[in-house]
Amino acid sequence: MRLMKGDSLIHTQEKTKVMIGIKDIMSKMGIGRDSAYMIIKRKEFHAIKIGRRYLVHEEVFDKWLREGK
User: Fold this and answer.
1) pTM for this model (two decimals)
2) Residue 16 to residues 10, 31, 43, 51, 64: CA-CA distances in angstroms?
3) Which residue of 22, 44, 47, 58 shows the fewest CB atoms closer than 10 Å?
4) What is the chain's pLDDT, residue by residue, as a tens digit (69 residues)?
5) Contact at 8 Å (CB) between 26 and 36?
């Protein structure tokens, strides 16, 4: 392919989240905010708190979810 002056190639890369938050947990499980916080605070998987936000590695959460909560 030959590019002319002013032409450009656009490469699209799928952006995926590595860390998920409370809203993502709510969406994945179909639960409310209070239940999502309760799950995080049970400490059945590693979660980090940054300011007021809790974040969980998505793969860790998905594995926990698959294994039966």
Assistant:
1) 0.70
2) 18, 22, 25, 23, 19
3) 44
4) 555 555 555 555 556 779 999 999 999 999 999 999 999 999 888 999 999 999 999 999 999 999 976
5) yes
